[in-house]
Specification:
By secondary structure, the chain is α/β, with parallel strands linked by helices. It has helices at residues 28-34, 46-49, 52-61, 78-90, 102-117, 189-208, 214-236, 241-261, 265-277, 281-296, 301-310, 320-337, 354-363, 377-387, and strands spanning 17-20, 40-45, 65-72, 95-100, 126-127, 137-141, 153-158, 163-168, 176-179. The chain has a six-stranded parallel β-sheet with strand order 1-9-6-4-2-3, sandwiched between helices. The two termini are 34 Å apart. The structure holds fe (ii) ion.
Length: 388
Amino acid sequence: MPNYTTDLSFNFNNPTKIVFGIGAINDIGPEVDGLNKKRAVIITDEGLAATGIIDRIKELLGKRCVGIFSEVKPDTGVYIIDRGVKYAKGLDADILISVGGGSSIDTAKAMAILLTEGGRLEDYQGWQILKRPLIPHIAVPTTAGTGSEVTYVAVVKEHDRGIKLVFGDNHLIPNTAILDPELTINLPPDITASTGMDALSHAIESMHSLQRQPMTDGLALQAIRMIFNYLSVCVENGKDIAARGQMQIAATMAGIAFSNAQLGIVHAMAHAVGARFGVPHGVANAILLPYGMEYNMDICGDEYAMIAEAAGIDIHKKTKREAAEMAVFAVKRLTEEIGLPTRLRDVNVTKDGFAACAENAMADPSIVYNPRTPSGTEDILKLLEKAW
Ligand SMILES: [Fe+2]
């Protein structure tokens, strides 16, 4: 256990009401009422809109639902936000309900900024810029990964420039998160795997971030335990609703952890590679996570030994270094076990984009919290090369 110094100080913010359980979605109407709102617009993607999930939510909401915006795409973009804002404004919406993966939840977060403040989305990019609460937002995640239902972060792609805009603001944290494992049982194995590795990356990056503290450690370590126990079960048998529930809770806990502790070099690189080459966020993280950990190894031996223990490894009689290396190995083994690619070359990443990726990773807000400060783009280039 690493020693915390006497100058430890932190803020811990977790305002989201979490409603968990099989059938928890049945509470959506009363949750809207509890926020004293009457005109809800559902934000979702085309795929989900075609399933029974949205029909059911619409029915549960009854008169409270005034519209469904179903134009969200993976890696949501500025143009999608603009369209959604126009749609919700036209309906005089007073609450947003996002249903889907991180892309739908982040779309609602970004829409909430413009519905409340107006203007151009780009102008709100950055950290803690918003001055007042936004239009309320209930998040209903249908994946177990991003943790966006409880985080203060939204990521929106600017397709023209091939970059991701990052917004970090406490006013972006959804008011309520409804976690119903039933909504995740039809998630295909590859998406289950990649979103689960995103959650693991959040938990592990929370553990090596410069802003980690005992409360985020607690959330992150329990999330790591649950992910190592249940992710492969969910990938193998998507209908295992108990395991699905555990993964949903783990992803949300990891979300609260990183929303307070911040992330690091893995997400900085994953954002860059994702934006440039269209690699799904969870897949990019899964590939880059072991290399990011190796990069931080000399500084984070204690933390990685704790991660190894949480991953179920017997570290008794091992040196800290050995235990830390076993944590990295456990991450690689889990990635293989759940059938995800392990090299950048497997996901159509080409070396000609490395220089731009390294520059974007160095400019990413997550890099600031990495425990080892890269000397420059050379360090990132070396890591990308290794991961290729
Ligand atoms: Fe992530």
